[in-house]
């Protein structure tokens, strides 16, 4: 077993011996790996390998049965999702989340963390501060939408855009939260090839600007092209980790995908 | 843009349903005015109705802050209303078994504190759980509060209720003697049917003043909160709580704030009611109040403050308006049809306008952050300062 074999000097996310069972099923079985700062790390594995469970454990949506999660050197095991987010780890969801009754730019504005206007009292004691930060956030949201080339959608109802555009908006909104490490759960599932390419370019661009990514993806071509290193998960534990080239040629990975066991 | 700055644009800005509501409201007010001049509607009674409308508006404001903003299902509107009413009554009424005789301001404070405590009591265990648990727990809470009020005679006088509640402004300088000090007026606009304004009328107008102050304050607070980042987090929770959590929002705290805010506004309605009616009894905690508030919010449009206001007025119109149908010669007694009528209205709204009559329409971003024409340019600081401070449009 070469679990998390690569040496990690500066890990922004470190998962150590994480466990979670649902009844008799060990969904996460002593998983250990780390995400190096500045990388796009891919997380792959056959269906039921426990990728989404792992995401939920890391981001605080599930309580682990054992093991630890560290974000930026801080132990965040067992913390609430909002606390994990405060430490710089933001996640997206497999199915895009719709915000009814909001426009796209309004939905974007949910993203920024620690807005003064999120304190009820500040709304009345210091409305000027609220207005100032709201203007800044709105300008930032517009700028990011422009970067993503979807600024024409800004005032559209957030529920009226296509699934692929929702994925883009979701990524854009996550960026407003200024994450140090961003967990993407199947960013291109159900997205047409043109938009998928756009998403890939965006992820790459954001990565060059300093955001670390950990992404689950079933589209092998997409993930092999984008991510390095790649962590392979099988039956809840880390099977191997390596470069796309190495993973592709690893017999154990092929066995895991094809269901071979010998 | 406020109505005063640019009335033409403000009218052009109205959507069709808004235009309808405005038109019907104006016609309705004119109708009431004419009824008053002809003596068909006593002016004192008219002011009493305005007070009731304000009270229902407060209840629906409160529920809107919980259900409309955050999606919290609260079935104990009547309990918070009752806590407000009993809270102030127990402090101020001459017939109070425990305290009594305090100033209504003390009553107001006590009512709000008790409502706050009750909201925390029910919120702490349920708001961490799925939405349905609050619904179930609040349904139970409403009955528990009602039964305590009915049975704990040493505390609440039981089924006899509390008498001798003073008016809210009793003991205030000027205002307490205002009704007696005002001269009785006799207006005769239409010959033969004079309109007489005397002490009772001035007393009632003080009540209207009070409810306008309460409802105005509540509306101001809710309106500002609704358009703020705070309100945006609440709306995110309503659509998808997990998303809000993933983006670093402490949803439990936000839900609690929204629940407490709504409960306090409901208690405010109860405080007003106690000083309007000058008597409270366990019957005031009947669950029907809860359902009136729900109907008002759904009718007006969940999440919309003016919708809640509109819904509250419609409820009072149906509730009190059916009394007058007795005067018109109908073959059946129409008053018991009240609930049926409300049912018909709600079915019609659900069928033809499920989002409510006045749903929240425009995008809700802190007003000064968005330029007038929806352009995203950051306004210069002078404009921002001015508008951010006062203009709540």
Automatic annotation (TrEMBL), chain A:
Any one Pfam family match given in the protein's UniProt record, by short name: ABC_tran
GO function terms (MF aspect): ATP binding; ATP hydrolysis activity
Gene3D superfamilies: P-loop containing nucleotide triphosphate hydrolases
PANTHER family cross-referenced by the UniProt entry: CONSERVED COMPONENT OF ABC TRANSPORTER FOR NATURAL AMINO ACIDS, CONSERVED COMPONENT OF ABC TRANSPORTER FOR NATURAL AMINO ACIDS-RELATED
Functional summary from the UniProt entry: Probable component of a branched-chain amino-acid transport system.
Record-stated family: Belongs to the ABC transporter superfamily.
Protein name: Probable branched-chain amino acid transport ATP-binding protein LivG
Organism: Halorubrum distributum JCM 9100
Automatic annotation (TrEMBL), chain B:
Pfam families the UniProt entry points to: BPD_transp_2
Biased composition (Basic and acidic residues): 382-393
Single annotated GO MF: branched-chain amino acid transmembrane transporter activity
Bilayer-crossing regions: 20-39, 45-65, 72-93, 105-124, 131-149, 200-222, 259-279, 291-316
Start and end residues of each stretch annotated as Disordered: 368-393
Source domain of life: Archaea
Major localization class: membrane
GO cellular component, one term: plasma membrane
Membrane topology listed for this record: Multi-pass membrane protein
Keyword set, alphabetical order: Cell membrane, Membrane, Transmembrane, Transmembrane helix
Cellular compartments annotated: Cell membrane
CDD domains from the UniProt entry: TM_PBP1_LivM_like
InterPro entries listed in its UniProt record: ABC_transp_permease, LivM-like
Protein name: Inner-membrane translocator
């Amino acid at each position: 077993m070469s679990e998390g074999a690569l040496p990690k000097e500066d890990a922004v996310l470190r998962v150590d011996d994480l466990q979670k069972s649902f009844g008799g099923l060990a969904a996460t079985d002593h998983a250990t790996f780390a995400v190096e700062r500045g990388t796009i790390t891919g997380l792959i594995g056959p269906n039921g390998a426990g990728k989404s469970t792992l995401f939920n454990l890391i981001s605080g949506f599930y309580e682990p049965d054992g093991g630890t999660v560290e974000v930026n050197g801080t132990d965040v095991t067992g913390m609430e999702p909002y606390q994990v987010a405060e430490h710089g780890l933001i996640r997206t969801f497999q199915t895009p989340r719709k915000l009814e009754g909001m426009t796209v730019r309004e939905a974007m504005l949910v993203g920024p963390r620690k807005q003064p206007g999120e304190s009820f009292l500040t709304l009345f004691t210091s409305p000027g501060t609220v207005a100032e930060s709201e203007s800044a956030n709105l300008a930032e949201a517009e700028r990011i939408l422009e970067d993503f080339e979807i600024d024409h959608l800004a005032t559209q109802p957030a529920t009226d855009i296509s699934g692929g555009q929702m994925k883009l908006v979701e990524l854009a909104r996550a960026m407003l939260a200024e994450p140090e490490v961003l967990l993407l759960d199947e960013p291109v599932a159900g997205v047409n090839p043109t938009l998928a390419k756009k998403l890939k370019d965006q992820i790459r661009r954001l990565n060059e600007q300093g955001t670390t990514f950990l992404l689950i993806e079933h589209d092998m071509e997409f993930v092999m092209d984008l991510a390095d290193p790649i962590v392979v998960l099988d039956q809840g534990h880390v099977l191997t980790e390596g470069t796309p080239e190495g993973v592709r040629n690893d017999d154990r990975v092929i066995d895991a995908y094809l269901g071979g066991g010998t | 843009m406020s109505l005063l700055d640019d009335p033409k644009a403000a009218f052009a800005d109205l959507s069709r349903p808004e235009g309808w509501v405005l038109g019907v409201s104006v016609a309705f007010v004119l109708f009431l005015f004419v009824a008053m001049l002809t003596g068909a509607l006593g002016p004192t009674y008219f002011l009493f109705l305005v007070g009731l409308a304000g009270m229902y508006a407060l209840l629906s404001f409160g529920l809107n802050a919980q259900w409309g903003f955050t999606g919290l299902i609260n079935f104990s509107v009547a309990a918070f209303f009752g806590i407000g009413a009993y809270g102030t009554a127990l402090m101020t009424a001459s017939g109070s078994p425990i305290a009594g005789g305090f100033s209504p301001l003390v009553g107001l404070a006590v009512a709000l504190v008790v409502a706050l405590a009750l909201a925390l009591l029910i919120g702490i265990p349920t708001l961490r759980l799925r939405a349905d648990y609050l619904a179930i727990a609040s349904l139970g809470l409403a009955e528990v509060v009602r039964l305590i009020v009915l049975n704990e005679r040493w505390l609440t006088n039981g089924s006899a209720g509390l008498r001798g509640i003073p008016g809210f402004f009793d003991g205030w300088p000027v205002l307490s003697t205002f009704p007696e000090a005002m001269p009785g007026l006799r207006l005769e606009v239409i010959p033969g049917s004079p309109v007489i304004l005397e002490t009772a009328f001035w007393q009632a107008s003080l009540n209207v003043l009070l409810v306008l102050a309460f409802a105005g304050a509540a509306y101001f607070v809710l309106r500002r909160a609704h358009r703020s980042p705070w309100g945006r987090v609440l709306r995110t929770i309503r659509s998808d709580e997990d998303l809000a959590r993933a983006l670093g929002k402490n949803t439990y705290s936000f839900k609690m704030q929204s629940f407490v805010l709504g409960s306090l506004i409901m208690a405010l309605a109860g405080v007003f009611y106690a000083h309007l009616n000058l008597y409270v009894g366990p019957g005031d905690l009947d669950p029907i109040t809860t359902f009136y508030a729900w109907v008002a919010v759904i009718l007006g449009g969940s999440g919309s403050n003016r919708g809640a206001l509109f819904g509250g007025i419609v409820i009072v119109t149906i509730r009190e308006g059916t009394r007058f149908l007795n005067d018109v010669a109908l073959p059946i007694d129409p008053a018991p049809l009240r609930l049926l009528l409300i049912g018909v209205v709600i079915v019609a709204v659900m069928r033809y306008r499920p989002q409510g009559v006045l749903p929240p329409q425009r995008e809700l971003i802190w007003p000064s952050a968005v330029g007038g024409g929806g352009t995203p340019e950051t306004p210069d600081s002078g404009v921002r300062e001015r508008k951010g401070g006062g203009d709540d449009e």
